[in-house]
Amino acid sequence: MTETRNDWTREEIAELFDLPFDELMWEAQGVHRRHHARGEVQLCTLLSIKTGGCAEDCGYCSQSAHADTGLKATKLMDVRAVLQAAAEAKDAGSQRFCMGAAWRNPKDRDMPAIVEMIEGVRQMGMETCMTLGMLTKEQAQTLAVAGLDYYNHNIDTSPENYENIISTRTFQDRLDTLEEVRAAGINVCSGGIVGMGETRSDRVGFIHALATLERHPESVPVNALIPIKGTVLGDMLADTSLAEIDDIEFVRTVAVARITMPKSMVRLSAGRESMSEATQALCFMAGANSIFTGDKLLTTGNRGDSADAALFAKLGLRPMVSEEPMRMEAAE
What we know:
The protein is of the alpha/beta class. It is about 40% helix and about 15% strand. It has helices at about 10-20, 20-35, 80-90, 110-125, 135-145, 160-165, 170-185, 200-210, 230-240, 245-260, 275-285, 305-315, and strands at about 40-50, 95-100, 125-130, 150, 185-190, 190-195, 220-225, 265-270, 290, 320. Helix 5 links the parallel strand 3 (about 125-130) and strand 4 (about 150). Helix 2 packs across helix 10, helix 5 packs across helix 7 and helix 8 runs parallel beside helix 10 (about 245-260).
C-alpha cells in the first residue's frame, strides 16, 4: 500500500474502511510518514471574494440563490481589499491563500480582477488557490498564465449520490473542469463533504472517484457538513432523524483518503469548529496535514488562529514552512 496507485477498486477501498480502527490508523500513519514530514501541518486561509447569489442548487450551501438563509449577495471584492486580507493572513502564519467566489462559472469580464488578485498574492510569497465554479479552457489557461498554483473544484460526494445533492450540474461537469485545470498546468484541489446523509458506500465511491483519477489531486479537502438552516440539507437534518456522520467514521474517511492518495495534502476543512480536540487529533494521526485557519471560512465560523495555536502546542504540531509549489507541465 506504499506506492501511488490509480487503479484502486471499490472493493479494496471498502476493505480499508472495514479495517479495525487501530489497524487503519497504523496503516494511514505509516503511509503519511513515508511521504510527508512528521508533525507539520499546512495553514491555509479562505476568503469569500464574492458571496451569495449562486445559481447552483447545492443542497448544503448557504450561498445558493435557492436557499433561504437570509445571506445577502455581494459583488466581487475590490482587489485591494483582497490583497489586504491576504497580507493579514500571511502575518498570521498562513502559507496558502484561497479565494472563493459564489459563481456557477466566472464571467470573462471578471477575469482581469481575478488575475490581479492571483498576481498580488503570489508577490507576497504565498501559494494561491481559487474556486470560481466551472471553467472554460480559455479561463483555465488565463489563470495558469497569471500563476495560479491550485484550483479548487470539489466533487462533493459519490457519482451515484451526486444528483441527490445537486441538480443544476452533473458529476461529469465537475470532472470536465478538473480536466481543464490539469490541461492548463494548474495543481488540483478536490475533495468533498461527508455527513450529508450518505451511506458508507457513497464515501467509498467518493474516495474511489478521486483515487482513480489519472493524477491524484495535490490537495484533498475533507469537509464535515455544517447544517445551515434554510438549506435543503440543513433543514432535512434538523427536521428528521437522519444522523450526521459520527466522529470515528469521519476519521476513517480521512485515513482512507491518506492511504489511497499518499502524496496528496489531505485538508481537515469545514466542520472543525464543532469538532472536539480529540477528534481533530485523531484526524492528524490519520494523515490530515492541512487546515483552514482563521475565524471564518466562506460564510461559516472557524476555530480561529489562537485556538489552532493552542491545539498545535498541545499536540506538538508545527506549521509547515512555505515552499514554492510544484508547477505542472501544461498538456499538449
